[in-house]
Amino acid sequence: MKRNKLVVLSVDALLWEDLYIARNYPGFSRIMKQHCGVEQVLSVYPTQTYPIHVVQATGQNMMDTGVYNNEAFQPGRLEPDWCWDVSYIKVPTIFDAAKKAGLTTCAIMWPVLARADIDFNIPEVWDLQKWEDPHIIFEPNCSAKGYEYFKKHVSKLEWHPKPGLDEFAVCLGEDILRNEMPDISFIHVSAVDIARHLHGMECPEVVEAIQKVDSWICRLLQAIDDAGYGEKTNFVICSDHGHLKVDRQVNLNVILREKGFITLDPVSEKVLDYKAYCHSSGLSSQVMLKDPDDEKTRCEVLALLQELQKDPQYGIRRIYTREEVEHEFQLSGPFSYVIDGDGGIAFGHACTGRAIRLPDDPDYTYVKTSHGHRPEIGPQPTFLAAGPDFSSNVMLEHCSILDELPTYLQILGLEMDNLKGNSLRELVRTQEENA
Fold first, then answer.
1. Residues 238, 283 share a domain
2. Which class for 360: exposed (0-12), middle (13-18), buried (19 or more C-beta within 10 A)?
3. How many CB atoms lie under 10 A from the CB of residue 270?
4. Bridging pattern class, strands 244-245 and 345-347
5. For 354, what's the count of Cα atoms within 13 Å in the CB-facing half-sphere?
6. % of the chain at pLDDT higher than 70
7. Are residues 195 and 343 in the same domain?
8. pLDDT digits over 363-383, tens only?
9. CB neighbour class for 348 (10 Å; exposed up to 12, middle 13-18, buried from 19)
């Protein structure tokens, strides 16, 4: 079967509303001249980058993927490790289906793909603890071919104090597309998301980030043209979640400690033990019980949470059991409860200090906007596609983010089992159109 190439660029936190600005820039305008897409894409709960990107790469919801949070559950760590490794994913990915069909694959800074069997794999990883030579963390997590490209471009990697991975990712993408042109390439950039976290929903910094993304689109398209595949490549711009303004941070672990559910070392204040612990997922939180079968603790924790829910300052909109979120949101994990935050409430990991911290407080260290909320609330992510297998000038109002991967499979002629979404067939050119 003759196949065209597929390049998917995930622009973290890009919204439909952003396109009113972006359409005036050369990269976005080139895609949007003959594009199709979806204005409002309904994401999954919680709206966090890592679980969503796993959904986008598997076509499965969080009931099955095994990835339910950005971060690993590490009680007492204010900055837990993120779920980098592909071993967290319990279902096949599009890269597995492509490899089975003999296609070449590439993933650059795509979450939760460290050590994945991908031809050119340079995953999103970093070192929260030591900040040593980046070769130490990337070499075991990249594919062999990916690591060769990593070494060529490591000088562009902003490694400390926090990773600035976008320019590095685009340099890698340009080089690999120009010289290798894999059949399937997924690339993830975070500039828009970071700008919103630090500066707000709509501000000059977000516009600047969109301009950066546009320049990266231009560079990736030029690399594809240089490789001779400009007319044979489907180019997708997708996103993962929206953002909401944060009015305060609530550290429920402070209350759990005060009530005896968390025990700290009196000197180091490290967590020695816990019966219940709130694992933050941004604008929601997942409550872990050390012994899920301990009914006494379960009832006591639920009673405490219900009491806190009566006080508006804690911002608890609803307390879900695991069974309820499995039914309503197809979300599952080793938690007993999920706390859904009211508008503007973000949850933290801290076990000490004040439970409630406002943006003007000296101990407030959180961001201006964030996510992890229910996906139907607030601005929505978007989806754009252009290329030989996509129709022109067709825009749908709504779809599920689960519909993206079946659409890719349709244009690639690949199959995967038990997908939870449906191909956006209205966006795909018919055989008569391709004739």
1. no
2. exposed
3. 11
4. unpaired
5. 12
6. 98
7. no
8. 888 889 999 999 999 999 999
9. buried
Residue 373, in any domain of the structure: no
The H or E element that residue 250 is part of is: strand 248-250
* Strand (E) or helix (H) holding 404: helix 404-412
Number of domains in the chain: 2
Instruction: Pull the structure tokens for residue 190.
Output: 């975070």
Q: Are 240 and 10 in contact (CB under 8 A)?
A: yes
Bridge-based pairing of strands 394-400 and 244-245 is unpaired
The rounded distance, in Å, linking the Cα atoms of 106 and 169 is: 12
**Residues across the chain:** 435
Q: Which domain holds residue 321?
A: 247-366
Q: Which residue has the tokens 């660029």?
A: 9
| Chain-centre distance for alpha carbon 67 | 11
Q: Are 404 and 382 in contact (CB under 8 A)?
A: no
Cα(87)–Cα(151) distance, rounded to whole angstroms? 25
Q: The domain that contains 276 carries what CATH number?
A: 3.30.1360
Which amino acid is located at 86 in the chain? V
Q: Which of 416, 382, 387 is nearest to 399 (CA)?
A: 382
* Interval 403-408 mean pLDDT: 98
CA distance 250 to 309: 12
CA distance 65 to 53: 11
Asked if 318 contacts 212 with a C-beta cutoff of 8 angstroms, the reply is no
Cα-based angle 197, 235, 61 (whole degrees, multiple of 5): 60
pTM score: 0.96
